[in-house]
Amino acid sequence: MRLLVIEDDPLLRHSLTEGLREEQYAVDAAADGPEGLAKASEAGYDAIILDGMLPGFDGWELLLRLRREKRTPVLMLTARDAVPDRIRGLDAGADDYLTKPFDFEELLARLRALIRRSSGGGSSTVEIGEIAIDTATKLVRQDEQVVALTPREYRLVEYLALKRGCVVSRTELYEHLFDENEDTLSNLLDVHVSNVRKKLGAAFISTRRGHGYCIE
Amino acid sequence: MRKLFQSVRWTMLLWYALILLGLIAGLGLLAYRLAADDRTSQIDRDIRGFQGAFFRSLFASRPLPKKDDPPSMDEIRERLRNPGDVSSFPPELHALFANGGGGSYLAFWDNDDTPLFISANAPDDIKPPQQAPDGPTRYVERGNYREHHRRSSNGMSSIIGRDISAEQGELLRFGVWIALGGGALWLVGLSGGWWLAGRALKPIDDIGRTASRIAAGNLDERIEIANTDNELGRLGQVLNNTFDRLSDAIERQKRFTADASHELRTPVTIILSETQRALKREREPEQYREILGSCRTAAERMRALVESLLVLAKQDLPSPDGARVSCDLAEIAAGVADLLQPLADEHATKIERELAPAPVQGDPHSLAMVVQNLISNALVHPPEGGTVRIRTASGATEAVLEVSDSGPGISAEHLPHLFDRFYRADSSRGQVNGHAGLGLAIARSVVESHGGSIEVRSSGVGSVFQVTLPSNSA
User: Fold this and answer.
1) pTM score, whole prediction
2) A67 CA to chain B: closest CA distance, Å?
3) B-chain residues within 8 Å CB-CB of A54?
4) Structural domains in chain B, sorted by start
5) CA-CA distance, A92 to A73, in Å (whole number)?
6) CA-closest candidate to residue B231, choices B210, B200, B208
7) Contact B466/B454 with Cβ under 8 angstroms?
8) Which residue in B266, B279, B291, B292 has the most chain A C-beta atoms within 10 A of its own C-beta, making it the best mutation to test that interface?
9) How does pLDDT run across A80-128, given as a tens digit for each residue?
10) In Å, how far is B8's CA from the nearest CA of chain A?
11) Interface contact flag, A12 B273, Cβ < 8 Å
12) How far apart are CA B162 and CA B46, in angstroms?
């Protein structure tokens, strides 16, 4: 899962990015309105964390412009605990909001819920045969036994599981599994896929030649 | 009941009732008096006419020998002793000879008070008249009778009287009518007064009700003013202006509190988010150090903000003049410039000084804070490599401090708000460099509490902040 954090305060931006990276997300960051909008419209993010007050143009403006082209789930952070601000955000197209100061765990839970909703899932656990993927604890179990996966392998499994039944192209996988700073060698994805197959069974991820990967 | 009489409406009505009662009673008495006087003079005319008629008929039936001469006293005495027969008098005088006949009566006495003629219908207790104190004749009212008493110089005396009980009764009825009419008029007047007082007080009632609604918290409501020129309109205007100022002040206070809490939210969020992240798993000491560093930076920001808020709160209080001492703006500016030299070096900015003595009366610590805010703004905001000029000067009545920079200036839309609390020209709310947007607000607050003014000029190239304080050169 790849996230975009748009927040102008350098300390908070750093804290959020690091915290989310430690939660197995690929995270990009932007410091102002124009940069945030550029990144948000360019890459395919699974969710965007958007601060209301930004230099350039503010979060509400950014949201209005973004909604003309993309439907990426957006969680707004508002510093003012004022109802009009929240209404304005939700009306502009925000999917959820949090008021500063917020609890980091709550931010994580809301992000999970956002991503789940946007991919049509209902619960935090996805079950595929005897394999269960818990998106809250980031653990994958096979026959009730926890399977040790690296963060990137987990991201790959989670992303494909949430898009279960669909063929996901390599480009899309690159976009959603790696942040902008990661050195993405072209065969890195194949390495991760083969590692996952070793751990969860060769049939878990099927390859559609010329199209991409898929979890049936 | 006590409350009732404290009400303006009732008090007004009470006074109105008293005044109206006095007026109506006065008018009624005057009318009664005039009517009574008119009646009395009518009666007196009647009495005189009756006397004339009696004497004419006394001499008409048996004329005197010398017809054209007035009769002598003796002839009159003679005639009065023997007035003759009833039939020789006209019918309207016949009552004189009937006992208990009522109407007008006559009585004449000789100078030795022997009766000459006393008509039969005269009251039984009739006596010769006393000498009147002023002149020979007077009118006397005795019970139901009004009499004309005469005692002439030749000694003869007479009483011509009349029963006036009918007139007295009529006058009494007239008096009762006046009293009833007056009372009715008073009541009508009272109800009119009650209505009028209510009408006059209704706008005040409305104003009171609106004012209490506003006091209860509905600060957007205002008193409706129908007519701005009358007293109530002016009162409403004054109250509305007061409410405007009040709600402005509350609004400012609310915004200030909201802004202050807003500015505190970001550092609190950072501390929360960093500590929660840190505690989630075991880490390397280096990572802990980094996280603690972020927390410290956030806490320092909060400290700076809290200190700024405290300074502002202090400046808002009326300060005793005791803290004011004589000081020189030039010295203060030089000290602050020295202090900020490292910051200037960091931004590759030159500080030019043009400091002439500018003595003022004030708190050197607060004034230094003003200068520091102005200079550090001039150092931090414009691009690096410019020049900051500090100038102090003293005029006859005022001391001036100017801080100007060589940056691109401030766009006109921001100029009116620069000194507002928490206002930042770049619309971002992030506390980059730890600026909470309070520096200029503090500067203005300090300068104004010193009785001075602060203003900014900016026209494309550079901005000039000018502080003007009352001079202490005298």
Assistant:
1) 0.56
2) 22
3) 428
4) 2-169 (no CATH), 231-316 (1.10.287.130), 321-470 (3.30.565.10)
5) 12
6) B200
7) yes
8) B266
9) 667 787 788 888 888 998 888 888 989 999 998 888 888 776 677 888 8
10) 46
11) yes
12) 9
